[in-house]
Design brief:
Distance between the termini: 87 Å
Number of domains: 4
Structural class: alpha+beta
Number of helices: 5
Radius of gyration: 55 Å
Strand content: 25-35%
Helix content: 25-40%
Number of strands: 22
Shape: elongated
Length: 428
């Protein structure tokens, strides 16, 4: 029995085997693993290892190509008549009569409307009276001058006759006194009379000369005064004639703003005449391009399936609401069926044509600013970021300066949903 007890006692002294991992240790190891995995994920994400699956049918893939490039911008233009003549009231007045309505096709000189102006018409009557009075006074002066000249000529004739007689007596007495037939006193008297008549003749000639100059001068002044008054009268008549507004050129009357009984001030706009011999295009352009726009630049547009070319003829440098305007004319034929007021979408060229590498325009530019793009791998299964540099652009293409080669395929659609993804996995 004692041995049994000893055996039991020894069996109780056998050491128990401890567990290898405790629960706490397992939790610690698991936390460390998660932390390491998170660190590895962050490192991979920051080092460009992030990917995103996208379906090919939801994106646009285009090929970089070498081709002809010309920088251009899209602008809107409106069809206008080649020339527009504005009708302003040359004289103010009340609208008494309208001869035509808005939209009428006019010939040069055709009456459009008639104004009345009592003050202007009264001024014309007064001017006509003034001209008549001046003409009457001038005729009276001319008659008086003519009579005075005739009298002076008669006086000159009398002086001339007396001089001839005095000279005859002087010559006769001179011979007689030398022969002693008459006394010397009688000769001296004839000599004095002859000298006196010569002096009268000299004075008569001077008076007649001065009278001729005076008459000529007075006549010239009267003629000038009369001519000025007649010119003033003609001007007044034209002013009254301007109360009838006429078409200055052949064309179509538009924007007529006049009704019977309405008063119009001098210089007020009445309407306009559109010349129908051709059309021009007025285009609005963003002020950003004002330094690059000049006369002679060309633009093109499509109309009824055919391309047409326009050329800038005039640049309006005044900027309004961030835009300025240019007038363009057709370089060749005018499209059949085009109408005034029609809007055109024009591609305005900013440079000459040149060879360049091109990629089509797309939504990718809004996210990348043209600094990078997703390039498709050769097997077409993935796309990855590559740095690029873009130059000019037109309505269809970007000019690629570096970063791509002809034949490279790139994604040009929007990158809105890609975030910071570095690589795209392309799925069919």
């Amino acid at each position: 029995m004692l041995s049994i007890i000893e055996n039991q006692y020894h069996s109780m002294d056998i050491p128990l085997e401890k567990k290898r991992f405790s629960t706490k240790m397992i939790m610690t190891i698991a936390g460390a693993v998660v932390l390491i995995a998170l660190i590895i994920y962050v490192i991979l994400a920051s080092s460009g290892g992030s990917k995103l699956n996208v379906e090919k049918e939801r994106i646009s893939i285009n090929t970089a190509t070498q081709g002809v490039f010309q920088e251009n911008i899209p602008v809107n233009g409106i069809i206008l008549p080649i020339t527009t003549i504005y009708l302003d009231a040359l004289e103010g007045g009340r609208v008494e009569e309208k001869f035509v309505e808005d939209g009428a096709v006019m010939k040069k000189g055709d009456p459009i409307l008639r104004l009345s102006n009592t003050d202007l018409e009264l001024s014309l009557v007064n001017q006509e009276t003034q001209v008549y009075n001046l003409l009457t006074q001038m005729q009276i002066s001319q008659n008086a001058a003519r009579t005075n000249t005739i009298n002076r000529v008669n006086q000159f004739t009398d002086v001339e006759s007396n001089l001839i007689e005095a000279k005859r007596l002087y010559d006769l007495n001179k011979g007689l006194v030398e022969k002693g037939v008459i006394a010397r006193q009688e000769f001296i008297q004839a000599e004095n009379d002859y000298n006196y008549q010569k002096e009268r003749m000299r004075l008569s000639k001077e008076i007649l000369k001065q009278d001729t100059l005076s008459v000529r001068q007075e006549s010239g002044q009267a003629q000038n005064s009369y001519a000025r008054t007649r010119n003033a009268l003609e001007l007044m008549r034209r002013k009254v004639a301007d109360l009838i507004v006429r078409a200055p050129v052949d064309g179509q009357l538009t924007s007529l703003d006049a009704e019977i009984g309405q008063s119009k001030n001098k210089g007020e706009r009445l309407g306009q005449i559109d010349v129908l011999s051709g059309f021009k295009v007025r285009a609005d352009i963003d002020e950003h391009y004002i330094s690059r726009i000049y006369n002679g630049q060309t633009g093109s547009f499509e109309f009824n399936g055919k391309s047409y070319t326009l050329e800038i003829k005039k640049v309006f440098t005044q900027v309004t609401n961030g835009r300025f305007q240019v007038d363009m004319q057709f370089t060749q034929e005018i499209p059949e069926g085009i109408r005034r007021g029609q809007t055109l979408q024009i591609r305005l060229a900013l440079s000459q044509e040149k060879q360049a590498m091109l990629i089509p325009k797309g939504g990718f530019f809004q996210q990348t600013g043209g600094n990078w793009i997703f390039k498709v791998s050769e097997d077409g299964t993935t796309a990855y970021k590559v740095d690029i540099r873009l130059g000019s652009q037109n309505t269809e293409y970007y000019e690629v300066l570096s970063g791509l080669q002809p034949g490279d395929k790139v994604i040009t659609s929007s990158y809105d949903n890609y975030g910071d993804v570095q690589e795209l996995v392309l799925k069919e």
